[in-house]
Please model this.
Amino acid sequence: MFEDLALREAALESKAWPFEEARKLLARMERRGVDRNDILFETGYGPSGLPHIGTFGEVARTTMVRTAFRLLTGDQVPTRLLCFSDDMDGLRKVPDNVPNKEKMAAFIGKPLTRVPDPFSDEYESFAHHNNARLRAFLDRFDFEYEFASSTDYYTSGRFDEALMRMLEVYDQVMEIILPTLGPERRQTYSPFLPVCPRTGNVLQVPMVERDVKRGTIVYLDPETGGKTEVSVTGGHVKCQWKADWALRWFALGVDYEMAGKDLIDSVTLSSKVCKALGGPPPDGFNYELFLDENAQKISKSKGNGLTIDEWLRYASPESLQLFMYQGPRKAKRLFFDVIPKNVDEYLTFLGKYSEQELKEQLGNPVWHIHAGKPPVSDVPVTFGLLLNLVSASNAHDANVLWGFIGNYAGEVAPETHTVLAAMVDYAIQYFHDFVKPTKTYRAPTDVERAALEQLAETLRGLDRSSDAEAIQNAVYEVGKAHPFENLRDWFRAIYEVLLGQSQGPRFGSFIALYGIDETIALIEKGLAGELG
Model:
């Protein structure tokens, strides 16, 4: 895949964060030596609620690091990405965003793979439903990954050796974890959560006995008070999640896993447990959290923030990946109004790529979004312009928009410009769902009316083949001729009177796309109060 020596040399110097992370992995290999034949990347997911966009972001970002690592090694070191679902965890509460809550409430405490799917009878359990949803999302983006189920790994014996090791170093693990807990929690804590043979519930109970040679633990049944002995192997226990994280790293030899900023303390704790088990914890970094429209952390149980399906209803998969690429260590608001900006920024980065030097290309987000092979850009208009074109033309039909686009850009068609065709459909959908309901037209002031009348007159005198730059200059000159405090006030007046919004596109570009005569007619309607 990556055979160009100059490309690898440039990557060694690149300041793009995926390359910085990949170089950490190279240093890890040098410290440890090559003691097995691949590098394992992991992402974790808890299927106690529907998979949200943050889960997708972790897979997307990890994939970017993996691609960067493959370039640095010339693809000579095999890599794997394991998407691990913690689906043996007990159901602690019923999520807010599911149907049939009463039915689910009867299964509190049961492993998620034993909780019936509240949505339908299609899947074996709630966890199986959520796992399938996650895999469908990831497959839609063509991610190269392996899916792993906690239930499968525990019950099949994949973790047995590591669980026996956890039993051996039980005291060390307790010494690491207990100081981080409150007094009440310390009384009941154990790294092992037995699955009750009587009820099937995952129990949080203290251990009263353990036998390392036999590989068993004994706890007091919280309902009967009697002693119950279970094996730590074969799926009869699972580990508390911080111990479970360490168990996974140790058992599988995970080399790289990133986590949210809210898990910094957990990463530190699990790393200590992993070392106690006898293995090195993985490398990784802590990314900032996504926030909803009210600046609250998004949650899969609450269902706040955007879902992957919602983003992809209004914009391209590439725009979503750009959102994930940029500023991973900065908290970002994840709501519908960030979509247009990311669409246009993606197109800008893509348009610049072919003209950039090699070093700049490796720092361009599209290199990482497209695994080093960005497509050629064929989009002559921005998403913002399309949104305003829909607004001005009241278009419900893509064919109407294509008429304007054809007049502006020449020989373009849905069949030959598939990315643009998708953007047209996205723009119509986004406008009608989010822009149209919030549009508020206002009447112009006396100063604004005089300026708009002059703008219409100026446009009548322009050559109909004038380009966007010439039109923009004409708009500027009209604004300068009237007593606006600054030109921002002039353009705000244009947007609020003619488009019903406080911000808008570069107006010369909009006129070039919409048409000079059509814009004159729009101004006349705005002055007559016929747009509201």
User: Anything to note?
Assistant: The mean pLDDT is 92. The chain has 24 helices and twelve strands.
